[in-house]
Specification:
Elements lengths: L37 H9 L4 H9 L5 H13 L17 E2 L5 E4 L8 H4 L7 H12 L20 E4 L13 H17 L5 E5 L1 H13 L16 E5 L5 E7 L4 H4 L6 H16 L1
Parallel strand pairs: 2-3, 2-4, 4-6
Antiparallel strand pairs: 1-3, 5-6
């Protein structure tokens, strides 16, 4: 029997990956509508019937020219250690249970992490920290996330981000954040089972509070400042309360310096579970 090629070690795809070519976990097809500006994003998001449609539309978005060029250039030039691997090179859709009670909110894909693998927090040290903590808490099915074909699944949790493209210097411009916020708002509004959210870093925190205001949710005033372990409560128009928990980001800058320790991360994930349960 002829062995099947592995989707991440055999260079089956050009970089960046073309929608509908069989990349593991690719939610898009050749017919998925492509947003080319903020107006397109709003129109397409409004017509997405299911989470699968939203993920597909996000994964082919081309609304921010600078981010499109950066993510695609990175997918071609690559990093030396992955020079023989194909890169995803497209916007990275959210990952996890669409009916989750818990959400983990990051910032944006890493240039050689999720921009390479096509899945949030996959293929880099930040993901190693996060998924190990989620596995220990019984949320992730495995402790390591290598690629989009490794079988990882999340229980009752969804990972989302205010920006879906890898930005230069890990810093999206304000206009780019505003455009991607349309996707972010739509996803938050769809997560009707959400009880608790953990924001990884200040940008995730402020982006979540801003999205809640745009959606007409009750947000404390003055807005609470981000801090590790800080909590605040948002209330949807239907009266449903969502507790938001702050946690330092699992970036190498934080984990290598000890600003965020494994014990601190484990405690934050445990608190997230308790908030979702109660």
């Amino acid at each position: 029997m002829t062995a099947l090629p592995h989707p991440r070690t055999d260079n089956l795809f050009e970089s960046p990956v073309t929608p509908g070519t069989g990349w593991p976990g690719d939610p898009a097809s050749p017919d998925t509508p492509i947003a080319k500006n903020a107006e397109d994003v709003a129109r397409i998001a409004a017509h997405c019937g299911e989470f699968e449609d939203l993920d597909a539309a996000i994964s082919v978005c081309r609304a921010c020219p600078r981010l499109v060029k950066w993510r695609e250039d990175t997918a071609v030039t690559k990093r030396a250690q992955w020079r023989h691997e194909p890169y995803w090179g497209r916007p990275v859709p959210s990952f996890g249970d669409p009916f989750a009670r818990m959400a983990i909110i990051g910032l944006a894909p890493a240039a050689h992490g999720a921009n390479r693998t096509g899945r949030m927090f996959t293929g880099d040290q930040s993901g190693d920290w996060l998924y190990r903590a989620l596995y220990d808490a019984g949320i992730a099915s495995q402790a390591h996330s290598i690629d989009a074909a490794d079988g990882l699944a999340l229980r009752d949790c969804r990972i989302i981000a205010p920006v879906h493209c890898a930005p230069p210097d890990n810093w999206p411009r304000p206009d780019e954040k505003r455009t991607c916020a349309i996707w972010f708002d739509d996803e938050l509004a769809r997560l009707t089972t959400l009880h608790a959210a953990m924001c990884l870093g200040q940008i995730a925190w402020t982006s979540t509070l801003a999205a809640a205001r745009r959606l007409g949710w009750q947000v404390p005033r003055p807005a609470p400042h981000f801090g590790h372990g800080t909590r605040t409560q948002l209330v949807r128009p239907d009266g449903t309360a969502i507790v938001v928990l702050g946690c330092y980001h699992v970036s190498r800058q934080n984990t290598n310096t000890g600003r965020l320790t494994r014990h601190m991360l484990d405690d934050a994930v445990s608190t997230l579970l308790d908030l979702a349960d109660n």
